[in-house]
Amino acid sequence: MCYSNSFVHGRKSIASHLHSIVSSLFFQLVVAIFAGVAVGMIWPGFAAQVKFFGDAFIILIKMVIAPLILMVVVTGIAKMGDIKTVGRVGGKALLYFLGMSTFAIIFGLITGNLVQPGAGMHIDPSSLDASALSSKTDGATASVSFSQFLLGALPSSIFDALSQNNILQILVFSVFLGLAAVAVGPDKVRPVLDIMDAGLTLIFTIMRWIMRVAPLGAFGAMSYIIGKYGIGTLGQYAKLIAACYGAGIAFAGILFLVAHIAAGVPLASFIAYARSEFGTALGTASTEAVMPQIIEKLIKSGCPRGIAGLVVPTGYSFNLDGAAIYLSVSFLFLSQAFNAHLNLEQ
User: Fold this and answer.
1) So where are the chain's domains?
2) Complete DSSP assignment for 249-291
């Protein structure tokens, strides 16, 4: 009888463990990504139709980003209660972002020179279709000066910034509003802060609903990418893709080590805690899709709301390390493909 009870208990334990794995968002995302690759390869026509799911998921995420940033930053700064603290945190964040972005560019250039992703292609520029290039560059804007960038960061209307999901302008307005709350005293604007706190509860609830369909969004996005470009086409650029992803993973590994050594962040626990966000970003090819979840998880893990709300959105505007690595590696890829090899000094 004891053996029978132990056996039944063991089976229930295994079933419970399997259920927890299958029901986890990370597992569902992994399955969705592989399913998307398979569908894109086998039914490319159908894959183009399911792109809707990926687009819809991104739109739903963008729907909550603007109010989330506004309410998190304002209430967070108000709870800090000290303008100097806000300035100190913001200054440190900007210095860090500047340093990491510069390091990311250098890291990408080193990777491009070591891997040589475009070597051996020997593309003749005269053989290319100039009209195809014009179609991609006709709508491009001229380079923006620093003063123009600063002016662009100032919202002429907060309603326009919210409607356009302009993260930087929303962040600037939110910082001003939060600092104003500190200046006049949080007690005097308590009703406004209470409304924002209640609004955050609603936003986080909506966000959890949206994340339930994240695997569907990842499936749609991955199906479309593979269906449109095909494994064969992507294979021609396998070295470039491997260089970009490899450099990105190595760069993230370096940052993990820095965080572990400098701040004592437990790497294994952190990766396990954020694995769903990694999967969502990979499946949808968009880090913007995980910004709300990152802010929420940082707050839940003990990070002050003001710091999480201030630093994360600012990083999305000033610290695009992945884009910096991709652009630097791709630049060297093109130069090597056209037989214009550049070394690190150049």
Assistant:
1) 23-125+146-337
2) HHHHHHHHHHHHHHH---HHHHHHHTHHHHHHHHHHT-SGGGH
CA distance 296 to 206: 12
Vertex 96 angle, CA 95 and 99, to 5°: 85
Read out DSSP for 70-119? HHHHHHHHHHH--HHHHHHHHHHHHHHHHHHHHHHHHHHHHHHHHH-TTT
- Tokens 């569907």 sit on residue: 216
Q: Which two tokens stand for residue 162?
A: 């919210």
Residue with tokens 């652009």: 327
DSSP-derived letter for residue 26 is H
* pLDDT tens-digit series, residues 268-287: 888 888 888 887 777 776 77
| In the block, residue with structure tokens 């910096």 | 324
Length of the chain: 346
Each residue's pLDDT tens digit, 6-20: 544 555 566 665 656
The rounded distance, in Å, linking the Cα atoms of 244 and 25 is 26
Q: Does domain 23-125+146-337 have CATH number 1.10.3860.10?
A: yes
Question: How many other β-carbons are positioned within 10 Å of the β-carbon of residue 172?
Answer: 20
Q: Tell me, what amino acid is at 17? A: H
